[in-house]
Design a protein that fits this description.
This protein has 233 residues and is α+β, with helices and mostly antiparallel strands. It has helices at residues 51-84, 95-101, 104-111, 220-223; strands at residues 7-11, 16-19, 34-39, 42-45, 130-134, 140-143, 147-148, 156-157, 166-171, 178-183, 189-194, 204-207, 212-216. Strands 7-8-12-11-10-9 form a 6-stranded antiparallel sheet. Strand 9 and strand 10 (178-183) form a beta hairpin. The protein starts with 6 loop residues before the first strand and ends in a 10-residue tail after the last helix. 24% of the residues are buried. Residues 1-21, 23-28, 30-49 and 73-84 have low confidence and may be disordered.
Length: 233
Amino acid sequence: MAVIDHILVRAPLEGRCLQRPGAASHSPPAEQKLELSLTFGIIEPFAGSSGLYKQQNLMRNLYILALVAVTSVCVNAALCQTTSNSRTDMSKLSDDELKQRLSPQQYYVTKQDGTEPAFRNAYWDNHQPGIYVDVISGEPLFISKDKFDSGTGWPSFTKPIDSSAVIEKTDASLGMVRTEVRGAKSDAHLGHVFDDGPKPTGLRYCMNSAALRFIPVDKLEAEGYGEYVKLFK
């Protein structure tokens, strides 16, 4: 192989060639000269290069472009999966931020201890299989298998998925003593629990739809709740 003693690096932005210091000023024969073009970070052969160099560089460039394309697709897919499989937790947001993220009804119920109208809410008559999560923290609260028709006009359940997901407090408002149910992580007002429910618990967790978000079974994986799919098998 002939010794390459003269290399020209094409600088397209400046419109000139840079010569290696100490090299002879005359141009060597074509078979001893290798010109490289730096175009978008990819090395390409000049017309003055030998056919072998041109073919090798062309194959290398095609390989680099293919590798970049495949890497880009993999990265985008990973980002999409991370985004879709993540739960929404707003429990750390300030009240002002929650006002921007929640609907007026949701904010009124969860942060101002309000009660939505009976029979005029999202889930009182919902019979789809799935789970109900805290609208603020995203914590799983109830499962459709424990939901029953209480005739009250609010979604009612015999028990929570996990008793540690909710906390109970004495509520003496409205001239009566009731047991309030709040989200353990979000401290959101969810509703109340009564002792007039069906067996086996005898309890009725009377919840506000505005404090909940329903996730159907076929969306559990995508929403980041895949571990609860087994509850429906």
